[in-house]
Structure formats: structure tokens, C-alpha cells
Amino acid sequence: MLVDFTVENYRSIKEPVTLSAVAQKPSSRKTSESSKRKGVKSDHEIAAGYHVEDWNMDILPVLAIFGANASGKSNVIQALDYLLLMMVHGTQESAKLQRLLKYAKLDSFKLDTTYVKQPTKLELRTIFDNNIYTYSLEINQNRIISEHLDYTLNKTKRTRRLFDRQWDEDNKKFIWKTGDDFAGPHNQLQGNIKENELFISILVKLKVDKIKALIDWIEERLIGIHLGNEELDLMQLISSDDCLFDILLQDVVKIVRKFDTGISRIEIKQKSEEGFDYKIYAIHNTDEGKEIYWNFDEESLGTQRIFNLAIRILIALDSGVLTIVDELGTNLHPNIVKYIIKMFQNSKTNPNNAQLIFTTHDNTLQRNNLLRRDQIWFTQKRPDHSTELYPLTDFHVRNDLAIDKAYLDGRFGAVPFLPSDEEMILQGDEECQES
After folding, report:
1. Which pTM was predicted?
2. Domain 2-221+321-408 -> CATH class
3. Could you give the CA distance from residue 80 to residue 234 in angstroms, rounded to a whole number?
């Protein structure tokens, strides 16, 4: 599971920002009687979190990022997706996938001449078998500057190195350090790794047993954050074996039908055995009981989005992995978005501790006991136009506050600065005079 993620010098992100899935400790204050009458729940009642033995912490199943347009909320999750993509596929394969994703590329903060020349820094902390794994990477356009992986034991809380490499500019080579716990034939490849290649991606391909849980977690998730990557999602669906494909497709259709789309069945037919060439058909039933086929791209954008989102949801819930979605509510009714969030927050529908991170402009998700206060994050621009990321809990608000209204009123920042009504009227008068 994701514990937290830190990124520095990536696109609009200049100084380090950290997105954390660690739940805040419950307050010792009792809920007031007036709040109880309003039906206000405590954070723990909204989402209990995944309790981690020996660490005295809970991990949150859902994180939501709100913010004005161009505030950098998409860049936060793009950076996370970029790192996970590179860890699995390495630089060479990732370059091909990046062209399909149309966004996943390495860019530093360009509005500061000092930062343009500096590497991008990324750090991922995860927890498996109650041990915390920390992977960190410094990278620029030409090479890896440093790469490091260690783990902290749950019993002793001691951190042990797995591997570490640092670029030595004077000697034009990497200085390697390997931990005693990480012995094996995979270390013999260290001298042959290219300057711009990740060692972790080699370990993933070799299925190194010491980090098997981490490998499975990053491998099984669907890459990409935009639901415009239908081709990639369908490749994941169709490339599974026939039995799994049929089961997964049936489950996808159940979700599509549950959201009142009017579809009775979906068929995916490959046109040829060579290449990824397919056709999707939506089947509707008439009042007379007849089946009507039409191309799936004739369905509404909302139905198409539900279909692709359903693939991601089912794979995440089945495998207990992370799914990341940019602008989750696009073309979806708010009630559908709320239902999706509840699927991840319910232990019955999410028994394998899958996680969901998404961005949105829908402030209605901040009300009605849907999200805990520590699940709500904001992005806003600093004076230098860089991205600032911070949680709602920084403001120490009561759990019975109308968060959605306070947010739109600008109490937490992360909203656009718009001209006043008076300025709009004056601007309209000027335009009329000019014409």
C-alpha cells in the first residue's frame, strides 16, 4: 500500500511536496450532541482506514485533491504515475508508453533558471508484510543521478539498505552499495546498467523474491491517470487469459448496468489475431425482447467513461493495488462518483486494501460524511507560480463544518481569483465603448 509520495522539481512543482495516505490520529474530543443530531460522523466512522500492525498507524483507502485550474493538482498525480511507470517498464519501454499517455515525460520547473538545471527528485514509501519500503530517485534528462531502495523492519524499526547507487561525475560512473539482505545474481548486472536506466526496473523483470510484494503492487496497476487511455485499458483486459477475460468482462458489465446506462451486454471482438485490433459493441434490449447492437463509441461519453473506469476499479479491487484518476467526475453524475468512492471505503467491496487517488473540481464530494478531513487535499499556486500541496487538516476544522461551502468561500485557498461583479460590469462597459 502507498504510505506517501514526495516530488520535487517536476513541471509546476518546484519545492518538495508530499501526498500522504497516513490517517491522522483520532481526536480525544467527543462529538457534540448537536453534531450527533445532524448525523455528523467521526472520521473513523466515515473510513476506518487499513490498520498496520506494529506501526500504530492506519492507511487511508482514498485521497482526493481539489484545486483551481492550473494549480498543479494533475502534476502531483502525474509525477506519481510517471515514477510507477518507470519502475515497472524502465526508460526504454516507458518512452513508447509515454507517447500513448501524451503527458508522462520528465520536465523540471522552468520558471526558475536554477531549478531548470537541477534533477527531479521522487520518493515513494509503501508498506507490505508490515515492512516499509522506501524507493527514491534523482533523475535528469540525460541520466540517473541517484537511485536508492531500503526497507524498515516492523519489529525492530531498523532501516536496512537493499541497494544504493550514486553518479560520480569525476569518474563518470556509478558508486554502488548493496545491503547484506539483498545478495543474489541480480547484483552481477550492476556494471552493465546504462546511465539512464533504472535498476529497479531490472529487478521487476527478474521477479526478485526479496521485493516480490512491491513488484506485484506496481506491476498489476493500470498505468495512466486520464480515462482517455481506452486502448491501454482494453489491452490489459484483452491480454488476460480467456477465462479471466470472460469473468472480468462480466463484472465490468455488472457495474455499467448498475449505473443505469441501459446496456444489457458488451461484446469485444478482435478483428485479427495479429496486433491489437478490436471492436466493442454495446447491446441493448428492445421492449419486444430483441437485442440491438451498435458501436460502443456511439454511446454517451459518460457511459464510455464508466466502462473504462469500471475496468480500473475491478482490477484495483481484485488485486489490492493503487488506481489514480485525473478529474474523476468528468462526464459522470456526482452520485456515481460517490458510489465509486464508497466502493473503496467499504471493506466488503474492498477486502484487499486497494487505494484510490483522484483529482476533482466537485466540491459536493466534501459534504455528507463521504470523505474524512485527512482525505481532502488542496493545491494552489505560490507567488512564484509553483504548486503548493496541503491537507484540510492543516486548518483544524470541526467535523461538522460545511466544508464544501467554506472551500468555495476561499477559507482554505485553492480556488481561482476571479474579478468582482463590479469589475466585470466595468469591463463590459469598456468593451461596448471600444466597439
Report:
1. 0.92
2. alpha beta
3. 22
